[in-house]
Amino acid sequence: MSDIVAGKVVVVTGAGGGIGRSVALAMAASGARVIVNDIGVSLAGEGGGDGPAQQVVAEIRASGGEAVANTDSVASSQGANQIVQTAIDHFGRIDAIVNNAGNLRDRVFHKMNEEEWRQVIDVHLHGAFFVSRAAAPFFREQESGAFVHMTSTSGLIGNLGQANYAAAKLGVVALSKSIALDMSRYNVRSNCIAPFAWSRMTSSIPSDTPEAQARVEKLKKMEPGKVAPLAVYLASDAAKDVTAQLFAVRANEIMLFSQPRPIRSVHLSEGWTPESIADVAIPSMRKQFYALERSPDVIDWDPI
Description:
CATH topology: Rossmann fold
Protein name: NAD(P)-dependent dehydrogenase (Short-subunit alcohol dehydrogenase family)
Shape: globular
Strand order of the largest sheet: 3-2-1-4-5-6-7-8
Structural class: alpha/beta
Family: Belongs to the short-chain dehydrogenases/reductases (SDR) family.
Pfam families: adh_short
InterPro entries: KR_dom, NAD(P)-bd_dom_sf, Peroxisomal_Beta-Oxidation, Sc_DH/Rdtase_CS, SDR_fam
Oligomer: single chain
Organism: Pigmentiphaga litoralis
Low-confidence stretches: none
CATH architecture: 3-Layer(aba) Sandwich
Number of strands: 8
């Protein structure tokens, strides 16, 4: 058993199953005291109660760890404040946040309605902001802290039928970078992980074509537990110099993703017109254009 986060208090949202559960268990196994947050509903928002969070807490305690369940929603400032306050009330401090809570409302863009859009943005993007913001004053006062945000290649690269999810997950990347910039003076770090793993989220992927079925079978090989070690590391003091980075975990692979930077520029001394842009600028840059690709088109090799 590792002790890399021994004594730290860590909040893991959406920790009732899948990746969040694996992260919560790994944090506890590595010495952390864990707030296991899960609202206890399905991906579609059905159900409720404290079942999943309490079950994970029971697992942690059975293994000799310390954990407390919380069932508040990340989608409101009030709920997020209560999640962090649970850590303060039970353990007296907060050292790391893992923003993992998520939902899906997949729909092709031109058929997506306002409710489907807002529900996903509320949980993923607003949730990451609200929970992070609730922890920020404590991190600032103690001059230490770590944020780990779960993003997705659906936002980084693209995917079909996920405009809401992709927009939220790319927004999380920008949020993480802003947190890293604004709070670096207080020794607070913020990083992202894009996980590849079979979970409640990915189990909703349609598999009604041979191509989709092959993709699902490939995903099933990627265990949620494979994501946890990186999350634990990023929450630890061993990662004190790692911030504003964007990682992905795919089975036994850890990837470092690039971040947007200029790759080509063109200049015209007299300035541009729409016509000169069409005749000169775009032809000059076209070879550097990105293709209309989805995540599985770009990361298309078998998991290791």
